[in-house]
Design a protein that fits this description.
heterodimer; A: 454 residues; mainly alpha; two-stranded antiparallel ribbon; 70% helix; 1% strand; B: 448 residues; 17 helices; globular; disordered N terminus; disordered C terminus; transport (chain A); NCX_ion-bd_dom_sf (chain A); membrane (chain A)
Chain lengths: 454, 448
């Protein structure tokens, strides 16, 4: 059982069970969140006389209480209450953010449970699409409300967070915990992910450069849009090839290494397929609701907290969305299982860069909204440097805590940069924040029209 | 005079089916003897040659001449494209629509490029390995060089820049990507390895070339040019100095490749049995030389048509000149090497494929481009190394991605997919970019 294995993990056991799990298509992504589970104690429930009630309670206990994060669950009804009764919008924002954390983790758990029933390939596919469900839902809501800047910033922040923050803390913690041991991992997995991230970077850089080649920026808007849409299709094709590569032809590159002893028994799903499915749909609806609150109230929260929207989108939102994976990656690095940590971090960022971003472009195309892949100079530059630094750090197959330190410091520097940058999304923000601070300068040192961000 | 035993022999092996590949494909075996060595560049084009049925040459001069003709003209599978040459000349003389002249010239250039490569290889038999290698190094990209020089003469500097840039991009991304993809798909169960040292040397040369391209660009963008720098055309001077440096580097690279570290660049040994025959040149030295001169002249003629009609074709087809120069021209010029590279990757001989692709890119970047700048200098044409932001960005990206991909010594099809998709994206970018022909790069006194 997944929770059994997690229990063993917490108690210093091994994860030999993990090798068997690959028959069920558990990628590193799934395995990371399993470390946050606890084994449910079913003794209390078994005392309930009525059979069906017992099953229901067992189910409930498994799903709701099966994680250490369940302390954050009360935030959900509080957020809904705050919204209905019109408490301060920043409260709605904060509570929704807190409520999203356990939901993201539970969705991951449910996806894994369903994967037991559907087999490895479909399970892998499910995980590949739903693994970043939170980011995807937030992005789609933001597109719907025409807040394109929020979309771009939050997705960019997700990629940066996965590449630098999650990876950096994992390498740091792993390095400190294993000072005497050699830390190795298979670099081929990291290479494939880095290569795809470089392709994504190309697709981001070309529209940016294209915008500055013409004689006037306004003239280049349509070609940039057309190029962005074409690049999105290309990226989606690349992602499909990556899925084929990962789940079918070269699976051995992506499977976590076997642990040493043979411990746990064969795992079994802890809930039925249909109940898992029902819970998944339910949780996704709640995530959608909370995401809508988040996207609605982001400006007011930014006002009342005094932080710019770009900072909230790039730094805060991704930390929330990634919290479960983050914790899992750190725990696995602590146990010197770097392949899994790397699989989580890199796989997640590849998924966002090559799947979620192009999907958002296509979705906005369908809605008739003009979103392109031009994320502006500063953001694209940060992305480029992160990808290059990460690719370079991971290219030799070993690790030490210094690599983690460097990656973390890169993340801190980038956050500092976005902290001091006050990007007004709407014209009247100029008066709210300091009017002396200029708008984002574009490459030719002309003030950029704010409409470019939408 | 160097001795004649040859290293590479070609055997015609279709029915024996040792390779389980149906259409007749040449097998190349290597006698590790002293003497001439076929570079990867030569070996790739031999795949497109067929061994002609050699009649023992009798004393008749006509017999000799016919044999010669058959060997040279019919000796390639691309012979079907040969009729395009007279058609192109006809179209030009009778003014049959300039777009037709353009297309027919392009088609005619494809087999000519391959034949020039074949003839260079034949001549190399007589001149020994070093001169042969040098010949190959200079003539390997003869088509691109001739097109560039002719465009320079007609003062179409942007065509020069874009076609050379497109050649590098095509070699690095298209040829390499499709080779790695085909090789990966064909060898799914096998491990694909190659010697990364060769790729590393080429990558570092390409990075030097990239630096020499980026400095004029950053110079133009970053520095607020004073009146002084504007008047002396500082970017131009910098470009010319960089070109000299690049040529020096290329000479050093040739020295490295052909003399001191040849073992890095030699094609892999084969495992198959030694069938014994040694290869010989199939045409005599002087006839090969004559053919070479003749074909080069025809290439020059067709290239002149191409350069002359490029704008007309762009108008009538509705594609920008940029796109034609960057994407279409290099695909044509490289077609023979491209096919050979894919076939070698298919057979899991990645070293050769890499040698072809990376070697060609290095040659264009470090030899043809600086040569054009120097020739422009002599002709008093202001061509500099500033290829403008978008193109230099694409170049930088292609070099970085390729260097990153090749740095671990193994390959699989996903690498090929990624490189190919990069190329498609760049192609899409240039497709949507519709710049008027009189863009900034033709007026290159430095500052944009």
């Amino acid at each position: 059982m997944a929770s059994n294995e997690a229990w063993l993990l917490e108690n210093g056991g091994n994860i030999k069970g993990s090798s068997r799990e690959f028959r069920h298509g558990r990628t590193a992504h799934n395995m990371s969140s399993s470390s946050l589970r606890k084994k449910s104690d079913l003794t209390l429930v078994s005392k309930v006389p009525c059979g069906m009630l017992r099953d229901l309670l067992a189910n409930l206990q498994e799903v709701i209480l099966g994680t250490k994060l369940f302390v954050l669950f009360p935030a959900i009804p509080l957020a809904i209450a705050a919204h209905i009764y019109g408490f301060g919008k920043s409260w709605v924002f904060g509570l929704s953010l807190l409520g999203l954390i356990p939901l993201a983790e539970r969705v991951s758990f449910l996806t894994e449970q369903i994967a037991f029933f559907t087999g490895p390939t479909v399970g892998g596919l499910l995980n590949a699409t739903c693994g970043n469900a939170t980011e995807l839902i937030i992005a789609i809501f933001a597109i719907y409300e025409k807040k394109i800047a929020v979309v771009k910033y939050s997705l960019l922040g997700s990629v940066l967070s996965n590449l630098l923050l999650v990876l950096g803390t994992s390498l740091l913690v792993g390095g400190l915990a294993n000072l005497r041991r050699e830390q190795k991992y298979d670099r081929r997995q990291a290479d494939v992910n880095s290569l795809l991230l470089l392709l994504a970077l190309l697709c981001h850089s070309l529209p940016l450069m294209l915008r500055h080649t013409g004689d006037s920026i306004a003239l280049m808007e349509v070609p940039t849009l057309v190029l962005s849409r074409a690049s999105s299709i290309i990226m989606l094709i690349g992602y499909v090839c990556y899925l084929i590569f990962q789940l079918w032809t070269h699976r051995q590159l992506f499977e976590a290494p076997e642990a040493d002893d043979d411990g746990a028994s064969d795992e079994v799903a802890v809930i039925g397929f249909w109940s898992g499915f029902a819970w998944l749909v339910g949780f996704t609806l709640i995530i959608a609701l909370l995401s809508e609150y988040v996207v609605d109230t982001i400006e007011q929260a930014s006002d009342s907290w005094g932080i710019s929207v770009s900072f909230i989108s790039i730094i805060l939102l991704p930390i929330v969305g990634n919290a479960a994976e983050h914790a899992g990656a750190i725990i696995f690095a602590y146990k010197n299982k770097l392949d899994i940590s790397l699989g989580v971090a890199l796989g997640s960022s590849t998924q966002i860069a090559m799947f979620v971003v192009p999907l958002c472009i296509i979705v906005s195309w369908i809605f008739g909204i003009k979103m392109d892949l031009d994320f502006n100079m500063l953001e694209t530059g940060s992305l480029a440097l992160s990808i290059v630094v990460t690719a370079f750090a991971l290219q030799d197959g070993t690790s030490n805590y210094m690599k983690g330190v460097v990656l973390l410091l890169c993340y801190v520097v980038i956050s500092a940069c976005f902290w001091v940058l006050r990007t007004p999304l709407r014209k009247h923000f100029n008066d709210f924040l300091s009017p002396k601070i200029p708008l984002i300068q574009d490459f030719n040192c002309q003030p950029k029209e704010p409409s470019k961000l939408d | 005079m160097k001795k004649s035993p040859m290293d590479i022999q070609e055997t015609w092996d279709s029915e024996k089916g040792e390779d389980n590949i149906n259409p007749p494909i040449l097998k190349l075996e290597k006698n590790q003897e002293d003497g001439r060595r076929n570079s990867d560049h030569n070996m790739s084009t031999t795949l497109l040659s067929k061994q002609s049925d050699l009649i023992l040459p009798s004393k008749g001069l006509l017999q000799l001449f016919l044999t010669n003709l058959r060997e040279v003209i019919l000796g390639t599978k691309l012979v079907v494209l040969f009729p395009a040459i007279p058609l192109a000349i006809l179209a030009h003389s009778y003014n049959l629509g300039r777009a037709w002249v353009f297309a027919l010239s392009l088609l005619g250039l494809t087999p000519l490029a391959e034949r020039v490569s074949f003839l260079t290889e034949q001549i190399a038999y007589y001149t020994g390995p070093t001169v042969g290698g040098l010949l190959n190094a200079t003539c390997g990209n003869a088509t691109e060089l001739i097109i560039a020089l002719l465009a320079l003469r007609q003062k179409k500097i942007h065509v020069v820049k874009y076609s050379l840039l497109g050649s590098i991009l095509s070699n690095l991304l298209l040829v390499l990507g499709s080779s790695l993809l085909c090789g990966g798909l064909a060898n799914l169960k096998k491990e694909q390895r190659y010697d990364r040292k060769q790729a590393d040397v080429s990558s570092s040369m390409l990075m030097l070339g990239l630096l020499c391209h980026m400095l004029p660009l950053m110079f133009a963008y970053g520095e607020k040019p004073s009146l002084y720098t504007l008047s002396v055309g500082a970017t131009l001077q910098l470009s010319r100095a960089c070109s000299i440096v690049m040529l020096l580097a290329y000479v050093a690279y040739l020295f490295f490749q052909l003399k001191t570290h040849r073992q890095l660049f030699e094609a892999q040994e084969e495992d198959e049995d030694d069938l014994g025959n040694e290869e010989k040149a199939v045409v005599g030295f002087w006839s090969a030389f004559t053919w070479l001169v003749g074909m080069t002249a025809i290439i020059a003629l067709l290239s002149e048509y191409v350069v002359g009609t490029i704008e007309a074709a762009s108008d009538s087809w509705g594609i920008s000149v940029n796109f034609i120069s960057i994407i279409l021209l290099p695909i044509v010029g490289n077609a023979a090497e491209h096919a050979g590279s894919i076939i070698f990757a298919f057979k899991n001989k990645l070293d050769i494929s890499l040698g072809v692709a990376m070697g060609s890119a290095t040659q264009i970047s470090m030899f043809v481009v600086p040569l054009c700048v120097i020739v422009a200098w002599i002709m008093h044409i202001p061509m500099d190394l500033d290829f403008s932001l978008l193109e230099t960005g694409c170049l930088a990206f292609a070099i970085l991605v390729t260097a990153f991909t090749l740095q671990d010594g193994t390959s699989h099809y996903m690498k090929g997919v990624a490189l190919l998709l990069c190329y498609v994206t760049m192609g899409a970018c240039f497709f949507v970019l519709r710049n008027p022909i009189t863009n900034k790069t033709s007026d290159s006194l430095g500052v944009k």
